[in-house]
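Lecture notes, unit on protein representations.

Consider one protein chain, 363 amino acids long.
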Amino acid sequence: MSTAEKTIELGLPTVPRMRKPREVIEAAAPTGTKKVLLAAPRGYCAGVDRAVIAVEKALDHYGAPVYVRKQIVHNRHVVETLEAQGAIFVDEVDEVPEGSVTVFSAHGVSPAVIAESEDRQLNTIDATCPLVSKVHREAVRFAKQDYDILLIGHEGHEEVEGTAGEAPDHVQIVNSPDEVDKVTVRDPEKIVWISQTTLSVDETLETVARLKERFPTLQDPPSDDICYATSNRQGAIKEIAPQAELVIVVGSTNSSNSVRLMEVALEYGAKASYLVDYANEVDETWFEGVTTVGVTSGASVPEVLVQDVLRLLADYGYEDVESIETAKEDILFSLPKELRSALKNDTGAPAMRLGGRGEKPNR
C-alpha cells in the first residue's frame, strides 16, 4: 500500500483519509532539522478533570442514563466518549425527565436554572469549576452592595450567562475593548469589573485599561478572575509562537480558551495557526515551508489527542520534540459535594480530592 493510500489510524474515532506522499511534502519543506515545540502546561485543567470524573462516577453509581445540561466541557471527543458510556446531553433542564440524575457543566448555571431543576425534582450534581463559582460569588457580593458590575466576557457563552444570571439587574457584559465607549453606569464611583475565566489575558487587560480611562475609580475584583490554566497555556504559547512557523492547537471550535490559544499564537509571531479536534483534521499542506511546529491544547483536551498529533507530525519528519515548560501545575479539586455524599458508602469510593493539576501563576 502506498503512503498516499494508507488509512490514518490516529485518534478516536479513526477516520480514513487520503494523504499526500511524504516525499511530496518534504520536497516543499526547507532544509534543516524539523522539530516540534510542545507546550507545557497544556490540556486538562483541574476543573475539567473534576467535571469529567463527576459524570463518569455518576454513571458508575447511578447507571445510565445520566443527563448533562450543555456540554460538560467544550470538547467534542470528551462529549462523544461520555455519550457512548450513557450520558445524555441536553440544552435545558426542561428536556430532562422529572427526578432524573442531572449534572451541571463545568461552565456553571444561573440561579434560574437551579430553581427550575428543583421544580422538576431533579437529582442534581453541580460540576461547576470552583474558579467559575468564585466569580459567581463575586457577582452576588457586589450586587448586594449595589455596585454596577462590568462583566468582561463573550455574550452567549454559558459561563457568562451563568455569572450574569446571579445579578441580572446589576451586570453589564463588555465583549471587547471596542465596546467600552458604550458602557453606561448609574454611579461612576461605584463600579467594579469581573471577567469570564477563559479569556485572552492581553485583551482583558486592554479592556480594563480602557474602562479605567473612562472610569478612574473602577474597582478590581478581589483576585484575578482569569483562571490559572488559561493564563498558563497562553504563557506557554507566547514563548513558542515567535519560534514556530506553524502552531497547531488541539481543541474544539466552541472552546473559548482553545480559540484564544490560536489567536495568541498569531499575535505573538506564528506565521500560521490552526485549531483541530483530531489529528486526522491536520492538513499536510500546512507543513510546506515549515521547519518548526508548535503544538498545544486547550484546557478541556485529553492528552491522547495531542499524542495522536505528535505521531502524525513524526510521520512527516517532525520527530524531534522539545518541551517548552513555563509553569508547574499541581492543584486538585474535590468532587462535587452531591457526588461525594452519594459515593461515601460505595466500596472503593474515590478520595475526597480528585481533579486535575494546576497552580495559579505568579503574575
